[in-house]
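tool_call: predict_structure(chain=1)
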Amino acid sequence: MVAQQEGRTAAVALVMAGLVVCGTGCSGSGAAAEDVSIGTDTVGALRQAAGVLERAGSARTTTSMEMATGGTRVTIRGQGVYDFRKQTGQLKVMLPQDPAGTAEHRPITELLAPGALFMKNRGAGVPADKWVRVETAGLTDGNLVTGGATDPYAAAELLRGARTATYVGRTEIAGTSVRHYRGTADLLVAARGASAGQGPALHAAAKGFATTAVPFDAYLDDQGRLRKVRHRFSFVNDRQKGTVDVASTTLLYDFGATARVRLPDAGDIYAGKIAE
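tool_result:
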């Protein structure tokens, strides 16, 4: 029991060190996966998912990021809205409880934008009315993990790198009939085909993760809109001297919902040192 609590304490501390398990700790770079014979229609539908979302305009989203390290698992949850045309979104991200089980962390408000992540209630040392700004291309995971939630548009653009994919079958998500696909995407291929807003961050991730191969499960509705996607990342974290496995799930619904996102003015951004 003591060992489990110590492991959970370390895992929560890992999350709290920027939310961020990977901002300074990913290492290695895998070679791009080899081309293989794949079903054109299946992979084509997945590679077009980001474009279909852009035409859909906007949606509400819920996110879940599960991290496993040293036999301990923690989960970060988020909820908000996203504008796919502007590639901007707002999420309220909830950190896991402390190991004692009672204390709750204040939710972190995140604003997502091309090339940048803004966070409020980021942590100790940051004034309550200030935002922390992070350049996503400067993160070794390209903000696929750092913010505790994968940018919904980046999650879809990862599917541009789909190399292998299998049609699993029909299922339902929140009462909507969807087609379930399972496969593997290549980060480097995705980065090459990504939009200008997401490309630099995905290139950073392709260099920073231990491998460019990203297994996924994706669910498309009959209009080709991405309803749910689950990516599985794995990297070496220098702080904990071990491998961290991360499963990031993005759920999209209520397409066309109002998604007004106002980015902070320069005077609202904190420029001081952030406490660990």
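agent: The first strand starts at residue 58 and ends at 69. Proceeding to next step.
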